[in-house]
Amino acid sequence: MLAILSPNRPEFAVVFIGGIRAGGVVTTINPLFTTGEIGQQLRDCGARLLVTVPELAGRAAEAAAGSLVREIVTIGDAPGATALARILDAGTGRIEAGGCAAQADPQG
Length: 108
Prior knowledge:
The chain has four helices and seven strands; from the N terminus they run βαβαβαββαββ. By secondary structure, the protein is α/β, with parallel strands linked by helices. The chain starts with a strand and ends in a 5-residue tail after the last strand. The model is unreliable at about 95-108 (pLDDT under 50). The strands form two sheets. Strands 2-1-3-4-5 form a five-stranded parallel beta sheet, sandwiched between helices.
């Protein structure tokens, strides 16, 4: 389960569609939610991977405590999170989070 915590921006659609193309289940989280509401949704859906933006990384990390989230990936650089660009630059296009894996399709 992939959770996306992000305002509307082009990368949101890329991550959403990429998660589906990788065979995953995706949930979106309203970036206006409180930390408690974000945490509740993460626990309810059983998300193991959380993708967010640097501006929300701190709240995301706090909300992920006590959930099944194993990795936080940011669309940009943020302390304590894995940058999506770093994963893509590594050329593997693969993210693993506690038994869940997503593989990017190089053919698009």
